[in-house]
Amino acid sequence: MALAHTTHQTDPMTETESIEYDVVVLGAGPVGENVADRTRAAGLSTAVVESELVGGECSYWACMPSKALLRPVIARADARRVPGLRRSVRGPLDAPEVLAHRDEYTSHWQDDGQVRWLDGIGADLHRGHGRLSGARTVTVTGADGERRVLTARHAVAVCTGSRALLPDLPGLADVGPWTSREATSAQTVPGRLVVVGGGVVAAEMATAWQALGAQVTVLVRGKGLLGRMEPFAGELVAEALEEAGADVRTGTSVESVSRENGTVVVVTGAGDRVEADEILFATGRAPRTDDIGLDTVGLAPGSWLDVDDSLRVTGHDWLYAVGDVNRRALLTHQGKYQARIAGAAIAARATGETLRAQAWGAHAATADHAAVPQVVFTDPEAAAVGLSLAEAEQAGHRVRAVDVDLSSVAGAGLYGDGYRGRARMVVDVEDEILRGVTFVGPGVGELIHSATVAVAGRVPVSRLWHAVPSYPTISEVWLRLLEAYRDN
């Protein structure tokens, strides 16, 4: 079977170019790039379609710029905890320097480097808006109106990601609200910032902009921050934000928003009036599937796409949905994991290989069910993998939660004076494996991969006793957790 070639045709009546590939990928973010990388490595000809910047949301408006903003915030906080160093880091952050460094990390919103990478793996980039126009067919309309029809012999992968979801509030568009894009790319520090939401984006951006000099007010409709993690995670992060000067209000809804003489005016459900220079809505995500031609293949425009564990869309043997669009785990690293699975599955099916779809096999995205890790880069950091206690109980597992105060670990005391943090492992008492682990505290983001290995590998508690943590590191919390499980 000839796989790694393209076929070109031009219709003289419409001046529409038709090109045939083995695989067509919609979206050139990290997910689409990884699908293309895997299919090209398998010898399949691959086209990638992108309407914005190659590199996607993560590179320019999410992971990279947000962490570039947060790194000096966390480094300063850590330094202030260390005797002999804290006096050297008095005073405010140099906001212009932080913003300039952030701009460097986004390559000043230029995608030349990412384009070179795509070219280096041998994938063809088609710039323009791509829409499905039937089975295995994508029509790309360029900025100049030129149309190209890309036909996929084997698969089309939808990797278009998600966008910020704004609430339906009258007059909101006239206010010019920030979403995650504006929050990570703003060129000046607002004097006052209202953050609406309690999830990861809200917590991280409140942390960053408060430290950069804004007066931040966080309005959370629910009971607390980081509602998908163990309750103590959001409690510790909220406590730290308030100590830094932010105003965190839980159980607070937004009834109306307006801009009066340049000032944003928020009226809460309790009738309180909050004024700010900018307002960030971090209130959820929606799939970028509203204008990609789903209706031409019998799917609802704007919908999340249901997939099997090889990331193939239900009822369509040629269509894959990878990353945020399938709603399994809206995280870049999980999307890249899915992309590796999808690329391998596409290649296997294209070459007639029997798919090994067993759990934890090369062609099944099993970790998206059992071992999804996440780090929230606040101060303190919050990191979790697998199920929380509540989720494990709701799933019907017989579990027991084991908690340890991280300040009791020698490595934490060395990390900084006044170290505050907490760890929890959720143990399945029947199988004696971990269903989930959560860490909250300075520096714990680097602990979570050990927990991910334990959860994904279903490592028995009895075996974990033989994974000896180095002394004196914060990783010694593993020993403390095992001792607490044994003794209680």
Automatic annotation (TrEMBL):
Domain FAD/NAD(P)-binding, first and last residues per copy: 21-334
Keyword Mitochondrion assigned: no
All residue ranges annotated as the Pyridine nucleotide-disulphide oxidoreductase dimerisation domain in the record: 372-478
The UniProt record lists the keyword Flavoprotein: yes
Highest taxon listed in the record's lineage: Bacteria
One Pfam family per UniProt: Pyr_redox_dim
Swiss-Prot/TrEMBL cofactor(s): FAD
InterPro entries: Class-I_Pyr_Nuc-Dis_Oxidored, FAD/NAD-bd_sf, FAD/NAD-binding_dom, FAD/NAD-linked_Rdtase_dimer_sf, Pyr_nuc-diS_OxRdtase, Pyr_nucl-diS_OxRdtase_dimer
Entry's transmembrane regions: none
Keywords: FAD, Flavoprotein, NAD
Family: Belongs to the class-I pyridine nucleotide-disulfide oxidoreductase family.
Name used for this protein in its record: NAD(P)/FAD-dependent oxidoreductase
